[in-house]
Amino acid sequence: MKSSLQIEKPFFTVDSALFTVQEGDLKVLMAKRAEPPFKGLWGLPGGFIDISIDQNTDMTARRKLMDKTGLNPNYLEQLQVISGALRDPRGFSVTLAYYALVAYQIVGSKISSVEEARWISIRELPNFTIAFDHQHIIELALQRLQQKTL
Q1: pLDDT digits (tens, 9 = 90+) for 79-103
Q2: How confident is the model at residue 141 (pLDDT cuts 50, 70, 90)?
Q3: Under 8 Å between Cβ of 106 and 124
Q4: 95-125 pLDDT, tens digit each
Q5: Which H or E run includes 40?
Q6: Strand-pair partners of 101
Q7: Cβ distance 66 to 31 under 8 Å?
Q8: 120 Cβ partners below 8 Å, 6+ apart?
Q9: Backbone angles phi, psi at 143, to 5 degrees
Q10: CA angle 144, 139, 147 (to 5 degrees)
């Protein structure tokens, strides 16, 4: 007997909070969105898993970082899974967040869905409107970095 229950599948994405120190200033890598939702707002580099080319979420994270910022970090660490119905206006979303502290590099977008990629000072971040719940992810990643330095 078949069930009549229809199960909606959530979106599954990967987002990366990368930090660097430049001239004594802690900065986070951000990408300005060129497409909806949140067109024109800043967010963490990330996006949907492509099961036709990504063998795992680590590959997704690295692919999205390269496409959206031109950066290929030597090291990435999984931070946390974040999920909820209100994360994304398109529907229930699950993201696997990564983070790392990396050496400063010049960055730039290599994909049309990103208007601009750049390092933004943590001190200046309150002056920006951040897409999705990426401000929360940045705060989680900063807390983890602080825990690792104690």
Answers
A1: 999 999 999 999 999 999 999 999 9
A2: very high
A3: no
A4: 999 999 999 999 999 899 999 999 999 999 9
A5: none
A6: 19
A7: no
A8: 27, 28, 29, 30, 42, 128
A9: -60, -40
A10: 20
